[in-house]
Amino acid sequence: MDVANIQPDAVNLPGLQLSSIGQFFIPASASLQERRPRTLKHGDTFAVFDHNGDVISGPGSPEGIFHRDTRYLSHFYMTIGGARPMLLSSTLRDDNATLTCDLTNPDLFDGTGKMVLEHDLLHIRRTRFLWQGHCLERLVVRNFNDQPREISIELAVDADFADLFEVRGTERGKRGTRNPTITTNDGVELSYTGLDGCRRTTSIRFEPAPELVTAQQAVFRLQLQPRQARSIFIKIACNCEPDSSPTAAFFKGLRDARRALRLSSSRAAAVETSNDIFNEALRRSVSDVYMLLTDTPEGPYPYAGIPWFSTVFGRDAIITALQTLWLDPTIAKGVLGHLAANQAIGVDPVADAEPGKILHEVRYGEMAELGEVPFRRYYGSVDSTPLFVMLAGAYLERTGDLETLRGLWPNIEAALTWIEDYGDRDGDGFVEYGRMTEEGLANQGWKDSYDSVFHADGTLAKGPIALAEVQAYAYAAFSAAAMICRRLDRREIASRYSARAASLQFAFDAAFFDERLGTYVLALDGDKRPCRVRASNAGHALLTGITYPERAEAVVKTLMEPSSFCGWGIRTVPSTEARYNPMSYHNGSIWPHDNSLIASGLGRYGYRKEASRVFQGLFAASTYIDLRRLPELFCGFTRRRAQGPTFYPVACAPQAWAAAAPLSLLQSSLGLTFEPENTQITFERPVLPAFLDEVVIRNLTVASGAVSVALRRSGRQVTVEVLDRRGGVNVVSLN
To answer: Which of 39, 81, 271, 494 is most buried, by the most CB atoms less than 10 A from its CB?
Structure first.
């Protein structure tokens, strides 16, 4: 991500100043796990609600409706007769299309203390969704009393127009101007003119018109006969004109939103298994991935996560595309196209940009526009560029789409030039990072906490830093480039990249593998001293194939030791290391995406049983988590019998690469690969984890064909049966 999360006590470490940690940290003052919010997203708009469907403002609150990095609604609070309704249930549809909150009335009293309505006589259902910059809601109130009732529904509203970085905790010395609120008989308009000169407007309309509308509240008085229901429709528009009535907009938008979700997800293969709980987890994973997809001119692009990272990130989207490539290659095509269209073409120190470099992050808010944060269009990640080439190669191997790769070749070549020239800062053949200004990110690998790269004694490494996994990605990039060039009939260039990959593999083994550690060191610091720390980063070397076969067993053994594999997954840093802290962001926590990539590497070297153990651990964790939704990360405490995992307080959920992790883990266990040139799908030594006896995959595409297959446990082996076939697809099972 763009910034490290820190623990509240981190700022009290001796000699440590907040400025040395980073300007853009996310303070752990409000636990997302404690709130367990309900989230919706469409396009550049996302929303965070509490279980009642309210938005409650206050210090540290992440709740609200956000559009292009600005909070357009910071308070939206419903009461009935002046009291807050009681929660019955709060659910998201399986496809994430709508949030439904079922509520009822508490005991209601008049001014003298006399009870005027007993609890549980009124049912209130709030149905809400996002569509094209709008939040649309139907509020239905039904009277289950045997007497007529007159009730009052109050809706308090406000908008602070806070920049997302303000919501995350960054203080601003000066803000723009809040404009006077405009009220009408059926709504209210809130607006703000920022220091960037941009006017941001929130328009709220109600149907039917409330009895009373003020700048802060709308009040409805409803007459309800026994069993009668009344509806109130609400339309909240973020920076766009309300062009239809709330009622018409609700029904049309609901139809269009569900249709769009069905259309996009229909591209994907469908998976069903013998485990109903895992089926729930899979449905949520797929739904979360498709909810996070945003249409760009180049195709669908997965935004990174809610609430803090609902925007374009290079690294996150590439990894998500790799994880879902077997399921839906269209995602990878969209990611490649959008990142190519936004590739850096010049040197810009403020943006950490250099020719050929791939995006890290894009922001649209006021603070980014003014340069108060450097992320308007920011390139400060060392791994996005080699990962871009790596994805291009994987996409070609999955689809055989040579036409798209031919169009992308100038961007791929520019990325490779960056790796060899700008990425290799000292000419030693390795890719290092170091920010170009003090405002840039200090650590630019995926573990970007201020303390994530350190020596065995805990001393922080000084840059420029060469991370182990980045060299692995560079190796994969050169290998992918060689394969692409061969397919493009550029044999001489292919030979050069093949030689470059082999040279890097040899140098990496010599400089990074440590016999005493039994694995690769975490990094080389600016003096080329190895950071002799065991870490999950070594698993990414397995992922890319840079590991020599004779090293694989030692690396796998180290990753699967109890100090590293805690039962839920592989820790970012094992308990043996100086900075191990299971509650930290990067030094002992469990990241689902990290584990899924490691599992892919385990499968690559034939360690499918170990990959299956990782799969089982993360699935077990998901059974304890709300909505079966794997979060961005959770704490790395050792798994205990009959107890769930310990949650990380400000982890995003849904998070794209966490949502895609179960899909990637399934592919790794099944040994699923594709040969589009032969219209062939292969299952190499498939393994089913203990919680699965059968997996059925439908509409699994390759080239112009598709198959449906069933994999079943049979003794110690897994059998593969073709259920349906079109287009002459050849299915091969290698046991």
So the answer is: 39
